[in-house]
Model the fold of this input.
Amino acid sequence: MTASISAPKDILYEQFIDNAWVPSRSKTYRQVLDPYHESLLAEVTCGDPADVDLAVAAAQRALPGWRATPEASRGAHLEAIATGLETRRQALAELSSCNNGKPLAEAYQDLDDAIDCYRYYAKAAVALGQRQGTVAEAGQPDLEARHYWDAIGVVGLITPWNFPLVSSAWKLAPALADGCTVVFKPSEVTPLPEQILAEIVMEAGLPPGVFNLLLGDGEGIGAPLSRHPDIDKLSFTGSNAVGEAVMRAAAQGVRPVSLELGGKSPILVTEDADLTVARDLVMAGICYNAGQMCSATSRLLVHESLADDLYAAIDAAMAALQTGDPMAKETDMGPLVSALQRDRVNAYIAQARAEDLHSETPPITLPECGFFVAPRLYREVPTTSRLWREEIFGPLLCARRVANDEEAIALANDSDFGLAATVVAGDPDRAEAIARRLEAGNVWCNNDQIAPPQGSWGGMKRSGIGRELGDSGLNAYLELKRITRPIKH
Ligand code: NAD
Done:
């Protein structure tokens, strides 16, 4: 059943530039849907290159003042942003759940992650101030040298729809802490929670032009922002195809990029693993956010002695999953974010049929409305299958049994991607030894996929360039400057 489309509650035809909402130059709009009720939530501008020009100019004007603002004061602004999010925690979690389709509990986790991230970089800004002027090796007895870190400039930040407020926090918090001014473009699919940032930033007292938010799609905003000559750095999270386009655009003027792209991450289970732990980690790795995670562990490599038992346990867990209204407490898995995303995943199910892949997952009854896809485990998937090699971004798990750790590691690394991995082993040292040999930016051993702000996030191989979070995230928006001079006697 498709619910009828009613008038939008929100009309987002304005851009946030210089601390004011100004009408977009675009005359085209797109609909923002609630993926569970399939109802209209809002209409949002597609954006226009003229909006980008205005926002970049505002960010350029604000740069000298913000760059010169003491680090501790920038940190205090970040702390205020964290407080602004905290004050709206419930409303924002509900909005995010309703716009994205993720269960409310997951939306709360996102909010808490975002708040932690702003708080972490509030402190990191203070620490940055303290390390300015660090004495460095001069290389000659009559010279002294010091290191300083300067904001890279005006940065363009582009994010996807799967973790609203989180992907943006990972970029905005360090960029602002470092003294950069920003033009931020959230996904056109989930603009509702992100646009509240404008209100929060105003309350936090950021000067005009420091934070600019442009609503719109790739054509209206993303591409013009990427090629804008006055953008000093681009930080992009999203698909590989668009990441390549952003990198090509950034080549003009030799502007640096950070890219957080796709994944096809493995989960390895050794013969001494606890079956229940393995089942739970496999389920979380493929069903959290309905599998719409860049770090989804969508390739299971399990020791042959455990394979049949683990497959049966996963099938039973998938069959028992409660799908439904993301706002309902009992819901384990919500709909996919859009009809487009559901159709993409369904195309992989059709491909699995065409390839004659084997699944014994019992069918589950899906809600009557909403862009749902039932989770599924495919057993002994050939490594040549498209389902084994391509990022699906939905709750479809491919599995293979392996004879030993060597085979598991070789298969795990046989991928274009290298974002993340999980190892489940009875012996934690064995798990870590395996983890050391995996080509992935993040490996979790016998634990959930956590990404605290103190950590690091990013991929090897085609999964991207650079790291977010922690010190790497801070350094991503800084230029190191070395000053050398004769020692004063
Ligand atoms: P997408 O690449 O379609 O869109 C991402 C963003 O880019 C959106 O804001 C979009 O409007 C914008 N965009 C589109 N065309 C553009 C262009 N030509 N120039 C500049 N910007 C443009 O990705 P998506 O469908 O929103 O998200 C899913 C993808 O994101 C998956 O591939 C997933 O793996 C990846 N992702 C990666 C990470 C990570 O940390 N590595 C995290 C989340 C999502």
